[in-house]
Predict the 3D structure of the following.
Amino acid sequence: MIQNFKNNGYEIVDFEEISDIYVVNTCTVTNMSDRKSRQVLRQAKKKNPDAIVVACGCYVQVAQKEIEEINEIDLVLGTNEKSKIVDFVEEFISSKNKEKDYFIEIDNVMQNKEFCDFGSVTYTEKTRAVIKVQDGCDRFCSYCIIPYARGRVRSRKPESVIKEVNEIAKNGIKEVVITGIHVASYGKDFKEEYRLIDLLEEINRIEGIERIRLRINRTSFNYRRIC
Ligand code: SF4
């Protein structure tokens, strides 16, 4: 999302600063994260009452009614809408002139069959790049809300991953961190047989990449009860 704003000429400032737009990418993996998300959304409007406050991400996706009760929010976007955040913000700004003061866009993530590809990102870290290759989970463990917030398994196309890693390697970054919600399911949704190991082997052949790390979702260890 930061990249998307930068590409469209916006300046990124620290959350503590006075800003025209505040984006809160909410989390719902525990009740504590729900509460923190609500607090931060309220704090944003206090910093600048004229700012546009955008609530997006997992908590928004699963708790629309709770989100609607927070008056400080102007724009509500689900997990699928994050890749087009600038379009939604600008649409809201122009509709605001016509006195539309609240806007909600939440897709049914369970019906989503394609990986939402954010494209390549310009990394500021010099040594390491985090590459998201997969989203969603099909396991539906009884204590976990993730599949309801992120939907079913969707994998990023290998050519898109390889293109990004090549760009990274050309920029001198030697280490990639491969991540997703349930990385071991990578490729499960492809028609042709192509699994995580195939992707890793392709990455391993890219000149300049010296280390590949796998990062599993920390949420696997921090459960939130849903019943
Ligand atoms: S605990 Fe992990 S495997 Fe189970 S539903 Fe949640 S994300 Fe999927």
Notes: The helical segments are 2-7, 31-47, 58-62, 64-68, 85-96, 146-150, 158-170, 196-204. The chain has a mean pLDDT of 88. The longest helix spans residues 31-47.
